[in-house]
Amino acid sequence: FFINFNTGVIYFLYLFHIYKTIQMKKIIFLLLVSFSLTQLQAQKSYFACYNVEVSNDGVSDFAAALDNFMLSDAGAKLPYSVILSEIFFGNADNKFSHQICFLAKNAEILADWGSKPPPTPEGILLQISFAKNVKVNQTILGSPLIETSSLMGDYFNIWQLNVEDVAVFANAFTKFSKDTEKMRGSGSFGLYEIIAGSNKNVTHHFGAYAANLGEFLKIREKIITSQKEFEAYDKSTAPISNVEGVFGGQIIKRYNMK
User: How far apart are CA 128 and CA 133, in angstroms?
Assistant: First the structure.
């Protein structure tokens, strides 16, 4: 009896030790997950984009004013990157000639958003040129959810989406990106959450990037004619999303790329 009792106690202690070890591993795992999520949240980036109409006779003046300011000491000290793009393709819902995007690595950088360029000679000239030549049609605040590459090609196509189930769509997007990686070559995809300023019903943007329009069309043909990958993506996303609009253009200037 004593032998069996002692054996039972030892066995119980052994099981208790295993239980405590598993619990400790769970705690450590949860702490690591929590730390990782905190880190990801801390590293979450944002963008604010102006969709603008630049008068035909003011394009050169505005581009030169922006260039002079961004290449000045004051422009170089801005905490965000700035991208100027020309829009090639749009419609009545996407009627703008250019897009100016400000990229922020974290929320803190946007704390003073809305302030005008500093009153330096270059900053004043930029304000004058902006007021004279530029009409703001839309301002958008958003954040990247998934990007296959941090290096965007110069040409882009943006699909404006109404997504009902973000988790399902994100999984389909990730699989589609992986399945088409070899077809894309240097091209890349991006999925973006639109936080404010979107067109009616638009919740997300799907961006496709390539070196130029010709390269984008070649990649598009490869993906569509492959059928399998595109059909799988379409089957997964069609029931929970709609395309509300599309526009395309090309990046013509990049400043302070950090």
Answer: 9
Task: Give the separation between CA 96 and CA 53, rounded to whole angstroms.
Answer: 5
Q: Torsion angle, CA of 170/176/182/186, rounded to 10 degrees?
A: -50
DSSP for the chain reads: -HHHHHHHHHHHHHHHHHHHHHHHHHHHHHHHHHHHHHHHHHT--EEEEEEEEE-GGGHHHHHHHHHHHHTSHHHHT-SSEEEEEEEEE--GGG--SEEEEEEESSGGGGTTTTPPPPSSHHHHHHHHHHHHHEEEEEEEEEEEEEES-SS--SEEEEEEEEES-HHHHHHHHHHHHHHTHHHHTT-EEEEEEEEESPPTT--EEEEEEESSHHHHHHHHHHHHHH-HHHHHHHHHHGGGEEEEEEEEEEEEEEES--
CB 174: neighbour CB atoms within 10 A?
14
Q: Whole-angstrom Cα distance, residue 76 to residue 70?
A: 6
Q: pLDDT tens digits for 110-166?
A: 888 887 788 999 999 999 999 999 999 999 999 999 988 777 889 999 999 999 999
Q: What are phi and psi of 229, to 5 degrees?
A: -65, -45
Q: How many CB atoms lie within 10 A of CB 167?
A: 9
CA distances from 159 to 41, 90, 112, 141, 201 (A): 26, 11, 30, 16, 13
pTM beyond cutoff 0.85 = no
Amino acid at 123: G
User: Please, which residues have CB within 8 angstroms of residue 129's CB and are 6 or more apart in sequence?
Assistant: 58, 61, 62, 64, 65, 66
The residue assigned the tokens 């902006």 is 130
